[in-house]
Amino acid sequence: MSKVVVVTSGKGGVGKTTSTAAIGAALARTGKRVCVVDFDVGLRNLDLVMGAERRVVYDLINVANGDAKLTQALIRDKRVETLSLLAASQTRDKDALTEEGVARVIEELRGLFDYVLCDSPAGIERGALLAMRFADEAIVVTNPEVSSVRDSDRIIGLLDSRTLRAEQGQRMEKQLLLTRFDAARASRGEMLSVADVLDILSIPLMGIIPESEDILRASNLGAPITINGSTSQAGRAYEDAARRLMGESVPMLIPGEKKSLLTRILGRRAA
Amino acid sequence: MSFFDMFKSRAATAPVARERLQILLAHERMTLGPKNLIAILRDEILATVAKHIDIAPDALKITMGQHGSVSTLEIDVELPTEKIAPARHMPMRATA
Ligand SMILES: Nc1ncnc2c1ncn2[C@@H]1O[C@H](COP(=O)(O)OP(=O)(O)OP(=O)(O)O)[C@@H](O)[C@H]1O
Ligand SMILES: [Mg+2]
Fold first, then answer.
1. Which among A145, A193, B22, B56 has most CB atoms closer than 10 A?
2. Domain-by-domain residue ranges, chain B?
3. Looking at CA atoms only, how far is residue A90 from chain B in angstroms?
């Protein structure tokens, strides 16, 4: 059965697009048919992070408005054959997207893919609401920082009230993806800890992605960090998150804790 | 403020952030509306029912509606028949 997942956050720049690409690629590499959809109309970026910016001919709005067929607009990834992209429009404004149009596109995508990942624009307005509207589940991307946590709380409220599922009285599954996590700063008490954020938002944890230069490198190259199998810590963290999304139980390592426990034990032995 | 206090407040600001967030969000969740109410009710009803009957999260539907001048809260729980049946048949089997 097909699953539609919105990747959302409220606050901008926390890592939604990066996470959509990385989780999408990781899922696709397991053989699942995956489509990543850019809902950030006017500010599209998913194509760039996926390395497909020169292959965009038709976009989400063209398909939603019936100006192009879905199959014409889908861009098949050249590295992982089960991965596709539906880009956002760069020129139209976000009011060009209608709810009926989005409903039709999502319905058609459900017939073609196992996972449809919707990369939400920042904010809590129309664009973000349309991206979550038809989702079955949500990934709430949060940085361990006050304004991001506050905005995530706001988004959780919207997921529980403004999605079709919520309006039909069904449960909206939400999982927290903590990104740009700096274990050293958290352990010094300079940054909210994993426990702090979980305690405040009280939704299940899907993964912890460390702050990492490899992420920047990956977007420079237009290659999602998980596209070649992961060699980096951030890539492995995204792979684990993708497996949890598929319902597997993967042990969660809280960055920094393993090390501190180890050094504590070693320290004791040395003493 | 002593030199030590300055050092301390510089280092561990996360507890302050945590406390400020907890106070702020408790307030915002109240004022930003009862829209969370359905979600809260669903979770609590589900937990209560699940204590006694093994049901899937999707088996519970809650809707708020407006019919003329009355507001309604509709709670729809789909029970798996095979899961509650054994309890009913138990005494019969015991006598057989
Ligand atoms: N774990 C990480 N480590 C380091 N840099 C990161 C990490 N995650 C994301 N970034 C960087 O943060 C920036 C914003 O990321 P991204 O575009 O994915 O965020 P976004 O939530 O989609 O933003 P917007 O709200 O504008 O759509 C990018 O430059 C990205 O490379
Ligand atoms: Mg983005």
1. A193
2. 35-96
3. 33
The residues of chain B scoring below 70 in pLDDT are 1-11, 33-36, 82-96
* Partner-chain contact A146 B21, CB within 8 Å: yes
Computed from CA positions of residues B65, B67, B69, B72, in that sequence, does the dihedral angle turn out positive or negative? negative
Ligand 1: does its nearest atom lie under 6 Å from the Cβ of A229?
Answer: no
Mind listing the pLDDT tens digit for each residue in A59-113? 999 999 999 999 999 999 999 999 999 999 887 777 889 999 999 999 999 999 9
- When divided into structural domains, chain A yields a total of 1
In a 3-state reduction of DSSP, which class is residue A229? Answer: coil
Q: Which domain holds residue A236?
A: 3-270
Reported as a single tens digit per residue, the pLDDT across A177-221 is 999 999 998 988 999 999 999 999 999 999 999 999 999 999 999
How many alpha carbons lie under 13 Å from residue A146 in its C-beta half-sphere? 14
Q: By three-state DSSP, how is residue A159 classified? A: helix
Amino acid occupying residue A156: I
Choose from A129, A151, A160 for mutation: most chain B CBs within 10 A: A160
**pTM metric for this prediction:** 0.83
Q: What is the mean pLDDT of residues A250-271?
A: 60
Integer Cα distance of A129 and A134 in angstroms: 9
CATH code of the domain containing A168 = 3.40.50.300
Alpha-carbon separation of residue A16 from A149, A182, A268 (angstroms): 14, 18, 42
